[in-house]
Request: fold
Amino acid sequence: MDTNKKIPVILDGDPGHDDAIAWVLAKACNEFDIKAITTVAGNQTLDKVTYNARRIAALLKIDIEVARGRKVPLLSDLIIAPNFHGESGLDGPELPEPNHEESELSAVEMMAKVLKESKEKVIIVATGPLSNVAALLLSHPELKEKIEIISIMGGGLRNGNWTPAAEFNILVDPEAAYTVFHSGLPLQMSSLDVTEKALVYPEEFDIIRNLNNPVAKVVAEWFDFFFIHVKSLGHKGATLHDPCAIMSLIHPEIFTIKDYYVDVELSGNYTRGTTVADYLGRTGNKPNCKCVVGLNRDKFVQLLIDACKQYEGWKI
Ligand code: RIB
Ligand code: CA
Reply:
């Protein structure tokens, strides 16, 4: 990635502890110029994730108005994940109250505005269900040429995490995911294949906590809460899903990335929402997605710690 100039980026998510940490990374790195934050129902209801997004923006001093998106998936009923993220969707540390009003624009209107006004192509980082991104592509096909890449946290080539076959973000809105994977746009998918290896251990929560800056303290406490349920599932560390969608853009060298044709299963009692990658090359389809399937965990965690150090002296 050209580090000489900042690349415009839209952050679309359902914060959510790991969305929040992904946005801490996005703000801390030099590569990105955050042009918009848009919210989508997923980890919690749209009201809750939007309030959370506005508080995260206040914490990180991202001076923009959050734009709320879809309250429900394109066709499915909403699934939420309070078991992972709590009743608020971001349980754990106290956060500042929002310091900006919510945008009067919807997420799709905000995304379209950013794409229209940007001189450069824009990166979209989607860390929740793909409802907003799909709605954007369906309502503004003429703006597809302004999108550099869509970096997604979602999917699983070998397993799911909400059903045995489907990962949460894809399962919440499979039709939206199908629309994105059939858009013809450059895609990068940080699936469970990498994010379940992106483990941060409790002793590393403490390294971040001891950085002794207010944002690092909040990040450590987000880990504390998020790990409660993840540990009960048998993981030895916090599976840091969403930050992979950011980190794999700015530091692809620490990841294993394969080009595969990926499609989304829409039907099937047990398979709806599955991302199916043609890693055997049997479908005759050209690859449509850069699949992030592995990482150097130690380097990943060090980069996360380094990002948290950027908030030295931060006042909230
Ligand atoms: O399956 C993990 C994904 O679902 C992450 O984006 C997490 O925030 C939840 O939305
Ligand atoms: Ca998320």
Remarks:
- The pocket of calcium ion (ligand 2) is lined by residues 13-14, 16, 18-19, 43, 127-128, 242 (CB under 6 Å).
- The CA atoms of residues 132 and 267 lie 21 Å apart.
- The chain has a mean pLDDT of 97.
